[in-house]
Amino acid sequence: MALNAGLVVGAHGRHFIVETADRQRVLCHRRGKKVDCVVGDRVQWEMAGDGGVIEAVLPRRSLLWRQDRWRSKSFAANLDALLVIVAAAPPMAEALLARTLIAAAHAGIAAQVLLNKTDLPEAGAARARLEPYRRMGVPVLETSLDHDAAAARELLRPLLARRVTLLLGASGVGKSTLINVLVSDAAAQVGAISRALNAGRHTTTTTSWYWLDRERDAAVLDSPGFREFGLQQIEAADLARWLPDVAAHAAHCRFANCSHRGEPECAVRAAAARGEIAASRMRLYEQLHEELSRPRY
């Protein structure tokens, strides 16, 4: 019997919501004990009783994930873009933003930053902290979702069209508000997934899929807030290539395997001394290099 094609739009443990080509949604589980599906996966499945069984996960064009020393966590698959949301308040955790952008670059996913709550007095300081990212070519957008939702919608809709975009950000930056601004029936969409999974709390711990248009050409994926972002999937010797401001100078170092942490004639450290690489970015690089150089268990 031929297998059916589907898209994973919800997940909770070993249970997955698979959307079919005719827009039906079926509660499925993975064959055997595998739990290698994530939201965004294209899968092959077959009916089994009142639900379905996922037989195969099709090759992914992208996967955003993080890895600490003990375990890995996948956010979503087959993404076209990443929108990292930060806010004027609570203050931006620059290390978290930088780690997220490094992971996106490593995964080959285009990333942009959205600064929310620009109506607050703290907005100027937030812009200053984001300036190094603007200089290295990271697109930085600005909005105030609570102050002018219509302007935010007008700004973002064209950028999200015909794309699958994952929203990432710490708790309190406005991700849920943004979802409600962009998706008029957001509560209905995620509620249907929750009822099918019989897991009303799943949206606080897993990624949620929202269609942006009736044609289903564009979608945004909401993700739970997080406080840490491990990068153990990256080798210390390879770290520099994923930081654009560091990579721009690394090729000019005297030694091809320069770690940029003390070797003579290091072009990266020379650029930092001239102010061409922000001091905060050099500190980040050094901290990450030390972290990734530790023995892995």
Supply the CATH superfamily name of the largest domain: P-loop containing nucleotide triphosphate hydrolases
Rg, alpha carbons: 21 Å
Number of H/I helices: 8
**Averaging pLDDT over every residue, what do you get?**
90
Written as H for each helix and E for each strand, in order along the chain, the element string is EEEEEEEEHEHEHEHHEEHHH
Low-pLDDT residue spans? 199-204
CATH class of the largest domain: Alpha Beta
Number of domains: 3
Shape: globular
Distance between the termini: 44 Å
Largest sheet: 6 strands, mixed
Explain this structure to me?
The protein has 297 residues and is α/β, with parallel strands linked by helices. It folds into 3 domains: 4-57, Nucleic acid-binding proteins (OB fold (Dihydrolipoamide Acetyltransferase, E2P)), CATH 2.40.50; 72-222, P-loop containing nucleotide triphosphate hydrolases (Rossmann fold); 236-293, Probable gtpase engc, domain 3 (Ribonucleotide Reductase Protein R1, domain 1, Orthogonal Bundle). Helix content is 30%, strand content 26%. The protein contains 8 helices and 13 strands. A 6-stranded mixed β-sheet has the order 10-9-8-11-13-12, with helices on both faces. A hairpin with a 4-residue loop joins strand 6 (63-67) and strand 7. The longest helix is centred in the C-terminal third of the chain and has 15 residues, at 279-293.
